[in-house]
Design a protein that fits this description.
Mean pLDDT: 97
Pathway: Polyol metabolism; glycerol degradation
Protein name: phosphoenolpyruvate--glycerone phosphotransferase
CATH topology: Serine Threonine Protein Phosphatase 5, Tetratricopeptide repeat
Pfam families: Dak2
Bound molecules: adenosine-5'-diphosphate, magnesium ion
InterPro entries: DhaK_L_YcgS, DhaL_dom, DhaL_dom_sf, Dihydroxyacetone_Kinase
Largest sheet: none
Catalytic activity: dihydroxyacetone + phosphoenolpyruvate = dihydroxyacetone phosphate + pyruvate
Distance between the termini: 10 Å
CATH superfamily: DhaL domain
């Protein structure tokens, strides 16, 4: 499940890397697509070379690559989230819904702690937190898909108070947050894999 999920996430980021870069040109330094794609292509290579034997193992390997290869603000944030998710998944072969939701809760909490960000600051937290809350409240994967897309689009009207976009102040309003968009891929691909 985790290998398929991260593979699809990597493929979607690759397909949309120019889009992510364009979004980051508007509110940041224009490298979010490059950063994410560099790390996730390495995750794909690693998964082929040394297939991990548990979902937790797959996610842990991806976490280490995010930390060492993605860079920017997003690398350590995704890296620490994936590291916590991996710990919560442990080395069990099968992951069920409740455990996955708990793992994703640990993941978003890690992002909020490391980035000192809360909801409403126009960051990836604005997708992660509503997505995890939806799962905690028992939403279906189909419902999650809708919630994630709405959460992503809600960042357009927000004013950034964390990350590079915060330098723009009010001028950050009117643009999607790049990290919220890459995070939407993360959850949308999870929903796709879990629905199958
Ligand atoms: P950088 O801004 O260093 O170039 P990226 O462009 O790869 O890094 O990532 C930018 C994204 O990281 C933003 O769109 C935002 O979603 C996320 N981000 C930046 N700072 C924070 C933070 N303090 N907390 C949570 N997310 C953040
Ligand atoms: Mg950037
Ligand atoms: Mg940068």
């Amino acid at each position: 499940m985790a290998a398929e999920w991260l593979k699809r996430f990597a493929e979607t980021v690759e397909k949309n890397k120019e889009e992510l870069t364009k979004l980051d040109q508007a509110v940041g330094d224009g490298d979010h697509g490059i950063n994410m794609n560099r790390g996730l292509q390495e995750v794909l290579r690693k998964m082929e070379e040394v297939p991990a034997d548990s979902p937790g193992g797959v996610v842990k390997a991806a976490a280490m690559i995010c930390i060492s290869k993605v860079g920017g603000a997003s690398g350590p944030l995704y890296g620490s989230a994936l590291m916590k998710i991996a710990s919560a998944l442990g080395d069990e072969e099968d992951v069920e819904g409740k455990q996955l939701t708990k793992a994703l809760r640990d993941g978003v909490d890690a992002i909020k702690k490391r980035g000192r960000a809360e909801e409403g600051e126009k960051t990836m937290v604005d997708v992660w937190e509503p997505a995890v809350q939806a799962l905690e409240q028992g939403s279906s994967w189909q419902e999650l898909t809708e919630i994630v897309k709405k959460a992503r689009d809600n960042t357009i009207d927000m004013k950034a108070t964390k990350g590079r976009a915060a330098y723009l102040g009010d001028r950050s309003i009117g643009h999607l947050d790049p990290g919220a968009v890459s995070s939407s891929y993360f959850f949308l691909e999870l929903a796709c894999v879990m629905e199958e």
